[in-house]
Amino acid sequence: MQMIKLKIESMGNAGRGELEALCGAGARLLPGLWAGDERYRDSMGWLDPEEWAPPVRVEQLQGKAKEVREKAQSLVLIGVGGSNKAARALVTALEPEGIPIVYAGNTLSPHSMRQVIGQLEGKSFYINVIAKNFETLEPGVAFRTLRAVLEGRYGGGAAKRILVTGTPGSRLQEMAGENGYDFLTFPDNIGGRYSALCDVGLFPMAAAGVDIAQVVRGAVEMCCALRTDGSPQNPAVRYAAFRNLWYQQGKRLEMLSIFEPRLGYLGEWWVQLFAESQGKRGMGLFPVLSKYSEDLHSVGQYVQEGAPILLETFLQVEDPEADVSVPPSPVQDGFQYLEGKDYRFLNRAAEEATMQAHSSRLPCLRLSVPRIDAYHLGQLLYFFEFSCYLSSEMLGVNPFDQPGVEAYKQAMSRRLRGEAI
Predict the structure, then answer these.
(1) Is the CATH code 3.40.30.10 the one for domain 5-38+215-404?
(2) CATH assignment of 55-212?
(3) Rounded-to-integer distance, Cα 86 and Cα 200, Å
(4) What pLDDT sits at residue 133?
(5) Which H, E and C letters describe 7-34, residue by residue?
(6) Listed GO cellular component terms (predicted)?
(7) Global pTM exceeds 0.85
(8) Exactly one of 138, 254, 260, 276 is catalytic; which is it?
(9) Of the listed 97, 297, 305, 419, which one is catalytic?
(10) 421: pLDDT confidence band, cut at 50, 70 and 90?
């Protein structure tokens, strides 16, 4: 099978020697990272994709997902941040033929909650609430609100339509036992933003109809490829080194740019992964997402003539697997020269022209994905997770904690409890 590929489009004003030196330093870190750093032993459950997603577990999740699809018209996924973004990324990108997923617990907007309740009107549905310790406000209140809707519709049968995904020993597991909910495992050695390849991400993907066996297979094969290549040419090493080189050179943002709208939520997941992992101690590149072509008419202006503060990574799809041609027309609209040309040709021309224009001013990378399918998106999830781990180690920050997020939670809790601020 084809693998994703990394290519440097532009080095900007930095020398290749500086990049190669950092790549060498990154490669020397690999044996220790694969062995499992003692400092992070409680956060490394994602490193081997099959630790929490062996074939037998994948089959079990597929069986439970099939049951939900047969009995419901929608699955409500309640979770915030890493608890829902990976599943949403793949479901949106792949557009599978399972049941629709309704997303909740990621905002406190009353309008959004009213919309969710409206989407469920007259529909048969299940709830899957995901929370590692069930102490976060957004999923907590959403579960209470939507559980009441479910109970109002199904009475005593509502409990059979609730699945909770939490850490063993947590309050969520206790609630499952007390109320007869199905319990799925949120591994205690995986943080939310690294949880794509366990029950957290895989079950809702499967309910939506994603082939999770192929997702895991892609991740496993990417893991093997990265693990067996201990050289400075390892693509994760080169990506991490490129990012850190330009951070040292004064860049402060990394922009992930896409020309395929289906990858929008995957970009959002990437933003969370890198922002929450590296934005600490006054350090780290600020990750932002641009959706081209539309953003070329806004952000594109800044890239070409604004402050030179960013580097750009283009996430390219080699085969969009769709064909739409520009039709002929008797109307003289000025676009006759495009008649008969396929949209994939037009999109690729815009993509290549943008890389050429931006590379003349910025350091740029191209990350190519053969096609948008479960296997290659599994590769991509694992590639970014491992690259973030390595890049954080090179930067000198803990990639697995999030003290700033906890600060907002504590302040919000005090306000809601009426305590002095």
Answers:
(1) no
(2) 3.40.50.10490
(3) 9
(4) 84
(5) EEEECCCCCHHHHHHHHHHHHHHHHHHH
(6) cytosol
(7) yes
(8) 276
(9) 297
(10) low
